[in-house]
Amino acid sequence: xxxxxxxxxxxxxxLPLSLVAQAPSLDLQVDHPTAQVSPMLYGLMxxxxxxxxxxxxxxxxxxxxxxxxxxxxxxxxxxxxxxxSAVQISMDETTGPSEALPRSIKVSVTAASEAAxxxxxxxxxxxxxxxxxxxxxxSFYAKTDSVGVPxxxxxxNDETGAxxxxxxVTGVTGEWKQYxxxxxxxxVPATANNHLTLTVPRPSTLWLDxxxxxxxxxxxxxxxxxxxxxxKLAAMHPKFLRLPGGNYLEGDHIAERFxxxxxxxxxxxxxxHPSPWHYRSSDGMGLLEYLEWCEDLKIxxxxxxxxxxxxxxxxxxxxxxxxPYVDDALDEIEFVTGGPETKWGTERIKNGHAAPFPxxxxxxxxxxxxxxxxxxxxxxxxxxxxxxxxxxxxxxxxTDPVKSVKPDVxxxxxxxxxxxxxxxxxxxxxxxxxxxxxxxxxxxxxxGTPTPNLExxxxxxxxxxxxxxxxxxxxxxxxxPLLVNVNPGGMQWDTDLIGYDALSxxxxxxxxxxxxxxxxxxxxxxxxKLANAxxxxxxxxxxxxxxxxLFVKVVNATSEEAALNIALNGVARVERDATLITxxxxxxxxxxxxxxxxVVVPVEHKIAVAGLKFKxxxxxxxxxxxxxxx
Length: 630
Fold this sequence. Notes:
Blueprint: H1 9-14, E1 25-36, E2 42-45, E3 77-81, E4 86-92, E5 104-111, E6 118-122, E7 135-144, E8 151-157, E9 163-169, E10 177-184, E11 194-200, E12 204-214, H2 227-235, E13 240-243, H3 246-250, E14 273-274, E15 280-281, H4 287-297, E16 300-305, E17 309-310, E18 314-315, H5 323-337, H6 343-350, E19 361-364, H7 376-390, E20 395-398, E21 409-416, H8 418-423, E22 437-445, H9 454-469, E23 474-479, E24 483-485, E25 498-500, E26 505-507, H10 509-519, E27 524-531, E28 537-544, E29 549-556, E30 562-569, E31 577-584, E32 603-608, E33 613-618, E34 622-629
Parallel strand pairs: 1-30, 2-13, 2-23, 13-16, 16-19, 19-20, 20-21, 21-22, 22-23, 24-25
Antiparallel strand pairs: 1-27, 3-6, 4-5, 5-12, 6-11, 7-10, 7-12, 8-9, 8-11, 14-15, 17-18, 25-26, 27-28, 28-29, 29-34, 30-33, 31-32, 31-34
Helix pairs in contact: 5-6, 5-7, 9-10
């Protein structure tokens, strides 16, 4: 058979340009930024969900420390009887340490001795974490019918019965009083398999409430936040904390809203309240604790105020009925920002914080699009008018589009599967610029449980490139939910950014995506034209002119390596030495967990750049930051 030969060059030349394959490229116009990047672009959204506060970032070790009114309030309390001792426990509805806390545990010890004490124990939040050479601070309110009976407090291992630390409190009387103690461990193994006991050595009746135990805290703040979780939050380089957050602000019913005035002052004056996520909040994480959380991370609060709508379709009509709630919001702002000449500023000072907190953004309600009464327009206008009159500098955020007044900012929420995150990465590219600025107050790619897998992180990163490209419109953004207790029964919503149990914590792949985007962020957005790279490759770029740094973010959500021809336009030179930070995995389903926390983590490479035009390859299933100096 005769061999045929021919050239493809004339054939290709004769095809229309649109049919000729073009090399994937990324053109960056470095000298003409498209917008200022908001100094508050990336932040934190928080609410009491998934045991985020009690048993989470608020590191109270005693579960149900204050005795509630429902049958389950003693579920995590049980009897301790050793040898021939005998005890019964019950809820006493007739006595408590305060008007806010009118109930207590009645501990009726009918037989006990020094060798065989009896009392009560608490199992904590899926255990109590004990570490070697660690000091724990505790307290409880008590009274007794046997004046002078000593109360011994101990941390005890669930499996071995060994005591890790113990202390004895004396002087308990027949009147309610708070007693403090300290537990110091020696060289014991680190484990979460522990419980707390309170026992007496002779027959007596003891009433207990508000039993508390705290480990060391972040920055050693008294009754502050959990160290490992705060360190992970700090690594995200957040600029704000949206508080008290989400449905927790609204509650299922108006009476169950976050009533901030009931969350300040001594714990004994905080009545606790039901969370919409079906457990009771201790309200140890009150308004001042939120603000101190911001202070510890050197960030600002974005304060959400209750706006007259709760999730069980209860609402307050605009007008005279709404005025008390508007006044309450004005009081709350005064508590945050007021000086000693103001009523609520004085109250904050009395609570231990003399300096006002910075505040620039106030959000009116949360997800009011779900209000079937369609009353939000009128409710928002009433809040807007009153707040602007007293605090004209504050930027007010609406949670649903309104017509009566123009809000400064609109809060939009997105919970998407990965495919939709990819498809909507350009959502804001052609958005209307004549309306309010945008706060993406809750968003997440929901793939993986209890925390996101790499597929979710790729979707998240694709979405974030869209927010950075549209930095003229998007002024703030915060992933949600932020935290989840990974123990069985600890989760009410998946997917969640950071997972933890009583002893340890880990960041999901999506967490590490947040860390990368928050860490490598310039002050101005740079025009980044991505061409011929396919529908699952995404890019954005920002620059820091003072540092002469360029941060190029490339997301490759495909199974193949993506090689881009990168052109830096508008600059005379680029330094040869550059850094490439990559978060990647062999499959999109790979993830991190409490037992394998470091499967997907960023890896840093030093690379050489061959001038203003160069080719760079990006691994399959990868999120990348290319840091260049120019």
